[in-house]
Amino acid sequence: MKPVLVSGMQPTGRLHIGNYLGALRNFVDLQNSGDYRCYFFLADLHALTEGPDPKTLEANIVNLAADYLAAGLDPGKVIIFQQSQIPAHSELAWILNTITPMGELERMTQYKDKAARAAANVNAGLFGYPVLMAADIILYDAAVVPVGDDQLQHLELTRTLARKFNARFGRTFVEPKGLLTKTPRVMSLKDPLRKMSKSEPESCLFLDDEPEEIRRKIARAVTDSGTSVEYDPERRPGLANLLELYGAITHMDPATVAKEFAGEPYSALKTRLAEAIAEHLSDFRKRKKALLAKPGAIMKIVDAGSKKAAAIAEKKIALVKKKAGL
Ligand code: AMP
Ligand code: TRP
């Protein structure tokens, strides 16, 4: 049997180029490799930790499903499903909670960042977020989890919890490994020392930004006061980020991209990068618009996927309960 691959994204708004180059494009490549049994889901229970308005959340769920499909995920080849439709995720998260040391969760960087930013909404769900994520993964016996760099700490915890459960109750879970792309951490256009994040829209290139918007944001991207194009992530992080983006889109090494632009002003790189991204995403934008014209059809695909995933998850949670003596 082929190894299982699981990944998900939160329906919390528009996807940016970091989500795409760090994760979504890789989902499609991995699907097409034929090497895995793939499950891609909408992490809507995770999104609840941010306290969304119900109508907005509902719209974001459809929107993310459209992103998956427009990017090329194919329900004929992979299972696309909605986390909240499968009770086993929440059940397993609870069981894992009881073997998770508080100290492990207190160390989580994403929790600390979010708690610092949203001091008014530091709910217990935000704290327990990585436990639910662990449940999402080990429920399906995933061996491989493609994610961006910021999720590796959560995956480390996932392995720890799988190991702990196995040690205590007998071999039940697989310990999964993360899978990164060549651009696992796309940086902000405004501050190249921080990762691109949707909490700061001007720092992001969104996948459905129109070409003029892409051009405008890249033209304003922070670089440095140098004049020559060279690839030096340590000393010239803003320029390096643009070279990495260009390299990721054109499948070139960033140092080679730098050579190609040697002797040209930064503006030349920025113009060509904006063109390359707008062009690369043009089919995506068209497909997404067409998909969103029929939201009912999108959710039909997701509901069918949720039924398939539920059948697998139910078997596994029954085994887990038995092992734990429930
Ligand atoms: P999220 O929107 O937080 O659900 O993230 C979805 C996926 O995109 C996860 O695998 C993240 O690790 C990845 N991701 C988020 N931001 C970036 C970034 N700036 N660069 C690369 N990958 C990212
Ligand atoms: N935490 C991930 C993120 O913020 C989303 C996620 C939830 C996930 N459960 C997962 C990713 C399981 C991979 C596997 O991006």
Describe this structure in words.
By secondary structure, this protein is mainly alpha-helical. It has two domains: 4-185 and 295-324, HUPs (Rossmann fold), CATH 3.40.50.620; 209-280, Tyrosyl-Transfer RNA Synthetase (Orthogonal Bundle), CATH 1.10.240.10. It has 14 helices and five strands. The protein has helices spanning 17-33, 44-47, 54-71, 87-97, 102-106, 109-117, 124-138, 152-169, 211-219, 237-250, 254-260, 266-280, 282-292, 295-324; strands spanning 4-9, 37-42, 79-82, 144-146, 177-179. A three-stranded parallel β-sheet has the order 1-2-3. The chain is globular. Bound molecules: adenosine monophosphate and tryptophan (TRP).
Question: What key phrases describe this protein's structure?
Answer:
326 residues; mainly alpha; Rossmann fold; Tyrosyl-Transfer RNA Synthetase; 2 domains; three-stranded parallel β-sheet; two-stranded parallel sheet; 14 helices; globular; binds adenosine monophosphate; binds tryptophan
- Strand proportion, as a percent range, falls in 5-15%
Q: Report the sheet with the most strands, covering strand number, pairing sense and barrel closure.
A: 3 strands, parallel
Ligand identities = adenosine monophosphate, tryptophan
Tally of individual helices: 14
One letter per element, helices H and strands E, the order comes to EHEHHEHHHHEHEHHHHHH
The total domain count is: 2
CATH third-tier fold name of the largest domain: Rossmann fold
Briefly note the structural class of the backbone: mainly alpha
Question: What distance lies between the first and last C-alpha atoms, to the nearest angstrom?
Answer: 30 Å
Q: Can you say what the CATH homologous superfamily of the largest domain is?
A: HUPs
Helix content: 55-70%
